[in-house]
Amino acid sequence: MGRSKGGSVVAVGLISGTSADGVSAALVRIGPGRSVRVLRHLTEPFNRLEQARILALAEAAAPELSEANAWLGRRFAAAARRVMRGSRPRVIGSHGQTVFHEPGRHTLQIGEPSIIAEETGVDVVADFRPRDIAAGGQGAPLVPFFDDFIFGGTPRTRALLNVGGIANVTLVGGGRPPVAFDTGPGNGLIDAAVRALTRGRESFDRDGRRARAGRIDVPLLSRLLDHPYFRKRPPKSTGREIFGGKFLKARCPRVTVDAIATLTLFTARTVADAIRRFARVFPKEVIVSGGGALNPELMGHLRWLLSPSRVVSSEAFGLPVLAKECAAFALLAARAIRGLPNTIPSATGARHAVVAGKIIPGGGK
Q1: Cβ contacts of residue 183 below 8 Å, gap of 6+?
Q2: Which secondary-structure segment (H or E) carries 264?
């Protein structure tokens, strides 16, 4: 089951990111060697009410969390079945939906994996973060293991940048251990501003059109950049708990197209500042994935701020920008099912690498 010729393994990865825009799923073939190929991928969007419900879960009571855990488990299972389309993967890796994350202390991801296992009949690995926290780590970021697995081991230094709701970067190659951390907000604040400006009619800045129509508000940019997280040294991770609606309201009480333009530059600026400040060697190449890679305004800012680095989409390497994190959790699950470490201590700050994830055997289907 889930194995093909040459020792490769077929796996599914599932995630719903901090933007809570939908459940993403990818079917991937792993190995032999260090190859990972995305066979197909999809995103099943949440509607506006579902997204609002998820974003409010950080303040929810236990009954609401319990109900959401089951509801999201069914949504994850449906996405897995759809992306499988008759194939029989060896394992499903589900990151779930982050409800709350206190780096190094406690974390909560929901989307009941037992439901996924029962409805697909496939072994599921889920709840990856707590094991790293138990070993003294931040519990995140976890995708750097995938970054180093695929792109590491080269003489030149590369930066793997993923811009989801939160932006994170991994620096690999050059004969040095990987360095990885969350740089700060990704699309999350831009999305929140678009929802506020359109009163919920739109959930993101499609093609960067609103940012392109606005002008940079320099005082606002200064207020946004004035946060101690950006000066903190790695390892570090963050989430909506810091860079969410409260942060936006405190620093930008009135949302306009100028604010969206400024937030877009702010995201690129925090990424570029973090790379320049914390990279031991400035990367020759920056490979961008996540929804942010589809925003021409954001990508333009990154190319300007990170010059002379070559800034390219992960598509240039055959890795769809919206499938990378799913592929990462497919890889982490494939490692976990074999009892192999799947974390990088230099990224999370843990005392040692661990086998992250809890294994739920497949159901009776």
Answers
A1: 167, 168, 169, 270, 271, 274, 275
A2: helix 257-278
**CA 55 – CA 50 distance, rounded (Å):** 9
User: What length is written for the chain?
Assistant: 365
Rounded CA separation 96/18 (Å): 10
Q: What is the DSSP letter of 3?
A: B
Interatomic CA distance for residues 66 and 68, integer angstroms? 5
> Following DSSP, what letter does each residue of 33-95 receive, concatenated?
TT-EEEEEEEEEE--HHHHHHHHTGGG--HHHHHHHHHHHHHHHHHHHHHHHTT---SEEEEE
φ/ψ region of 139 (left if φ > 0, alpha if ψ in -120 to 50, else beta) reads left
Write down the pLDDT at residue 6.
57
Work out whether the CA dihedral 330, 336, 340, 346 comes out positive or negative: positive
pTM value > 0.85: yes
Closest CA to 91 of 4, 34, 13: 13
Chain centroid to Cα 84, Å, comes to 22
Residue 323 has pLDDT above 60, yes or no: yes
| Chain CA centroid to CA 184, Å | 12
Name, in order, each residue with C-beta under 8 angstroms of 60's C-beta and a sequence gap of 6 or more.
68, 99
Cα–Cα distance, 109 to 212 (Å, whole number): 35
Place of tokens 């933007």: 19
Which residues have a Cβ under 8 Å from the Cβ of 71 and sit 6 or more positions away?
Answer: none
Q: Is 357 helix (H, G, I), strand (E, B) or coil?
A: coil
**Residue 272 vs residues 90, 159, 326: alpha-carbon distances, Å:** 39, 11, 25
Query: CA quadruple 109, 111, 115, 121: dihedral positive or negative?
Result: negative
Contacts of 215 (CB under 8 A, 6+ apart): 258, 261
Q: In whole angstroms, give the CA distance from residue 30 to residue 233.
A: 33
Confidence of residue 280 (pLDDT cuts 50, 70, 90): confident
**Rounded mean pLDDT of 212-231?**
97
